[in-house]
Every structure is written in structure tokens, then in C-alpha cells.
Automatic annotation (TrEMBL):
Pfam families in alphabetical order: Polysacc_synt_3 (PF13440)
Membrane-protein topology: Multi-pass membrane protein
Transmembrane feature ranges: 92-116, 122-142, 154-179, 185-207, 303-328, 334-355, 367-387, 393-412, 424-448, 454-479
Name recorded for this polypeptide: Lipopolysaccharide biosynthesis protein
CDD domains, A to Z: MATE_tuaB_like (cd13127)
Main location: membrane
Length: 501
């Protein structure tokens, strides 16, 4: 290659790095806002809508979630990772997603009485029919959103993804103040989808043309099909608990389970999915460059997992105070559920860079095989845990996630070049900080409430956070390796800030 060619290649790499850095900065800021908004929504609506009403929506939401995976069909990720995407291919993908969404919308409306009969809850008919329109709305928005990601227009997408739930929450609060029932939650979900659709269409700047048969779609459908199957398997295993609790224990315990899950796991999903949005286009372009690919995975693990797992450790130790602050009176039984979900979320976050690898290297078939194995673990954990009620189910879910973390490294290292050993060591160093932080948070909360009269939940949580920070500081002082990890996190954040300018 000539000197000019090398220079151009290096400039292209730097340009890609700057765009990724800007995307990471914008995405981090928007996801911080979305997480705060999600937590605020849970906190506000939990004081307007009782657990039983939440349980009714959760029964339908489990079915709707399966439909949403079918509606996407893995085609958004297929569009984002494709090296080349013609206008005709994008148009075809749009119409496929719309067609699937329309079919699912009709199916949801038609099947509403059957779902209500399954759970023996007549109110589910109206809930199911209202939420069925989310399939069609999201089908219309899928490829416009994927186009914004592919073009790395992260700032525009961030504005839409923050503004839409803000508007929806406003409507849900109004309905909740009037009805104090499940209609507030239904309005929130439908309004979020509708506002997102309007935003991505206005920002996308393209109108789909009629579909074409000669656009060359086989590769998209092959990748999307493998990803779809793996997502269905994973979702079914993750949400088996909803069906078990709903069918055997009723809407009350399911409402507790659902709110604890939504308070913790939904913000985690909102954090991890956009990290994929930023990482996937970049990793797909450097998938054949082993050193750069491995370096990005190792840095990605530290940037994503270190702060998340430390926060989750505090949640485990101070789960009662967290529930008191964010859910309020009447939700105290959700505390052990929240602690179990925090353990599960930490393990999933430590393993999440493996998911980036599957997508960036087009290993959707291997991802399906792995998902089937982990689904068996999740199903076993939930079914065994169900012998001890709703708390046992949450504990079984956490135990399966703990087993999946080391399994994920070993499994992926068998099929592709992957720094599993170094990632495992990095994860163990994160846990070496998180465990004492969690113990400190628990001990601080116990001491605050140990005088016989419980302190306000906000006081307990504040003391737990301060204690966790103090212990983390001690860990950094005592272990040079941990200081290096923290330094890497700071270095990456500084680099992102500088490149984003």
C-alpha cells in the first residue's frame, strides 16, 4: 500500500474513532437521562397504581414481549451491521417489519379473550387489545431507528428516546391520578411507542418505496433468523417466571415481582442495549483486526461493567432502603426480589461483551445454540425456585445468571478468537471490589436500623452509598491492579470526552 493509502486508512480509522466516541458520549448522557426517567416513572406510578393492577399488565406484557421479538425479526441488527445497505434493501426491510407488526396486531386483538381465559382475568381483554397496537407502531419505526444508528446519528436518536418517554409519562400520570388502575401503565406503553414513531420518522428523512424482489435480501434474513431464534429462546427463559407466578400465585405477587424487575432490570437493559448500538458498528468494521477487537472488548467491559456492578452491589446490600425510596409503602416484600435481580444483573453485565462479539462477527447461529443452553439453566432455576414461592423464583433466576457468566466465556472461546481468559480475570477484579462494597452497604443499613426504630429509607440508602464509596476507596488503596482498572475507566472516559469535541 502506498504512503498516501496508509495515511487515508489511518484518517478513516481516526474518523471512525471520533464518531464512535461522540456516539458513546451522547449515548451515555441520553441513557443516564432515560434511566433516571425510568426510575422516576416506576416511583411515581407505584404510588398511583397498586401491585395487583401492575400484575394484570405484567401478564399481558409477557406475551407482548414475545411478539415484539417476532416483530423485529432480528432485522434491525441485520441492517445496522451490514457492510453495505442499498436503498432497495432498506425499503424491503421496512415493509417486512411493518407486515409482521400488522399481523401481530391483528393476532393480539383476536387472541385477547383466550389470554384472559388462560389467566382467569377478564380485565386482560382490554389490556391485550390496547397493547396489540404497539406491534404495528413499532413495526413502522424499526428501520427508521436502525437507519439513525447505522448513520451514527446518536444525538438525534438520543433526543427522540428521551422525549418520547417523557411525554408518555406525563399522560400516564394524568390517567393514574384519575383511575388509579392499570390504564395508566397501558397508556404509558402505547404513548411511548407512538411518540418514538413520530420522532424517528421526522428525523429519518426518508420515505420507503414499494418493495423489490431483486434487492438481495437473503443475507439479512439468514442473520435475522438466527438472531430471532436466539432472542426468542432467551426471552422465553427470562420470562418463564412471569407465567409461573401469574398462573399459580396471581396478580398480587406478580405485581411485586414485576415492579422489582422493572425498577432494576429495565434500566440495565436501557444501559446495555445502547452500548451495543455504539459498539456494534465499530466492532463490525474491525472484526478481523484481532488486537484492536480484543482491546475494545476489554475496555468495553471495564467501562460498562465496573460502575454498573458497583452500583448493583449497593442495591444488594441496601435493597430494603431502595424499595422504600423508589416504591414507597406497601411494597416492602419486593426487597429480597430486588436484591436477587441485582445479583443477576451484575452477572449479565459482566458477560455482555460476548453478545457484542456474536453480533459483530455475524455468529447468529452460534448465539442461538448458546441461548438454548442458557435457557435450560434459567428454566431449571425458576422451576426449582418456585418450590419456595416468589422469592425462590427470583433466587433461582439469580443463580442461573451466576452460572451463565463463566459459561459465556468458555462457550465463545470455542468458536471464535476471543479474549475469554483476560475478560474473566477482569470480571473477577470487578467482583473483588463489588463484594466488600455490598457488605459495607448492608452493614451500614443494618446499623442505621439497629436501634429498634427504623430510620427513614432515604437515610438508610444515603448511609449505604457513602459506606460503599468509602470501602471502594480502601480497595483501590490496597490493590494496585484495581487502581489500574479504575485508571483505565478514567482514561477511556477522558478520551471519549476529548474525541467527542
Amino acid at each position: 500500500m502506498t504512503e498516501q493509502g496508509v495515511r487515508r486508512q489511518e484518517e478513516a480509522r481516526q474518523g471512525l474513532g471520533r464518531r464512535a466516541a461522540r456516539g458513546a458520549t451522547v449515548t451515555a448522557a441520553s441513557q443516564g437521562a432515560r434511566i433516571l426517567l425510568q426510575v422516576a416513572a416506576v416511583a411515581v406510578l407505584a404510588r398511583l397504581v397498586p401491585p395487583t393492577e401492575y400484575g394484570l399488565v405484567a401478564m399481558v406484557a409477557a406475551v407482548v414481549g414475545i411478539g415484539e421479538i417476532l416483530r423485529d425479526a432480528g432485522l434491525s441488527s441485520a441492517a445496522m451491521r451490514a457492510p453495505d445497505l442499498t436503498r432497495q434493501q432498506r425499503d424491503n426491510l421496512f415493509w417486512v417489519n411493518v407486515a409482521i407488526g400488522a399481523v401481530l396486531c391483528v393476532a393480539g386483538i383476536t387472541a385477547a379473550p383466550l389470554i384472559a381465559r388462560l389467566f382467569d382475568e377478564p380485565a386482560l381483554v382490554g389490556i391485550c387489545r390496547a397493547l396489540a397496537f404497539v406491534f404495528l407502531i413499532n413495526g413502522l419505526a424499526t428501520q427508521h431507528k436502525a437507519g439513525l444508528v447505522r448513520d451514527m446519528r446518536f444525538r438525534t436518536l438520543a433526543i427522540v428516546e428521551v422525549a418520547a418517554p417523557v411525554a408518555a409519562l406525563g399522560g400516564a400520570i394524568v390517567v393514574g391520578l384519575v383511575t388509579h388502575d392499570h390504564r395508566a401503565v397501558v397508556v404509558q406503553q402505547v404513548a411511548t411507542a407512538g411518540a418514538t414513531l413520530v420522532g424517528v420518522w421526522v428525523a429519518g428523512g426518508w420515505l420507503p418505496a414499494r418493495p423489490r424482489r431483486d434487492a438481495g435480501m437473503r443475507g439479512f434474513f439468514r442473520f435475522g433468523g438466527g438472531l430471532l431464534a436466539s432472542q426468542l429462546v432467551g426471552y422465553g427463559a427470562d420470562n418463564l417466571a412471569t407465567f409461573v407466578i401469574g398462573l399459580s400465585l396471581g396478580p398480587g405477587p406478580l405485581g411485586l415481582y414485576n415492579r422489582a424487575y422493572q425498577l432494576l432490570m429495565r434500566p440495565l437493559t436501557q444501559l446495555r442495549q445502547p452500548s451495543t448500538t455504539v459498539a456494534l458498528p465499530v466492532l463490525a468494521r474491525i472484526a478481523e483486526d484481532r488486537s484492536r477487537f480484543d482491546s475494545m472488548l476489554l475496555r468495553g467491559q471495564q467501562v460498562l461493567a465496573l460502575p454498573v456492578v458497583l452500583v448493583l452491589a449497593v442495591v444488594v446490600g441496601a435493597s430494603g432502603s431502595v424499595v422504600g425510596v423508589f416504591l414507597g409503602p406497601g411494597w416492602e416484600p419486593a426487597a429480597p426480589l430486588l436484591a436477587a435481580f441485582a445479583v443477576a444483573g451484575g452477572c449479565q453485565t459482566l458477560a455482555y461483551v460476548g453478545y457484542w462479539t456474536y453480533l459483530a462477527r455475524g455468529l447468529s447461529g452460534a448465539l442461538l445454540a448458546y441461548s438454548m443452553v442458557t435457557a435450560v439453566l434459567k428454566i431449571a432455576g425458576v422451576l426449582i425456585g418456585s418450590l419456595w414461592g416468589v422469592n425462590g423464583i427470583a433466587a433461582g433466576f439469580a443463580a442461573s445468571a451466576a452460572l451463565e457468566w463463566p459459561l459465556s466465556f468458555w462457550w465463545l472461546s470455542r468458536i471464535t478468537a476471543y479474549p475469554g481468559g483476560r475478560l474473566a480475570l477482569g470480571g473477577l477484579r470487578i467482583l473483588a471490589q463489588a463484594v466488600p462494597v455490598g457488605v459495607a452497604a448492608w452493614l451500614a443499613t443494618w446499623l442505621v436500623n439497629g436501634a429498634g426504630t427504623a430510620a427513614p429509607a432515604a437515610t438508610g440508602l444515603a448511609v449505604a452509598v457513602l459506606s460503599g464509596l468509602l470501602v471502594w476507596g480502601v480497595c483501590l488503596m490496597l490493590a494496585p491492579a484495581l487502581r489500574r482498572d479504575a485508571g483505565l475507566l478514567i482514561e477511556v472516559l477522558r478520551a471519549v470526552k476529548e474525541r467527542a469535541r
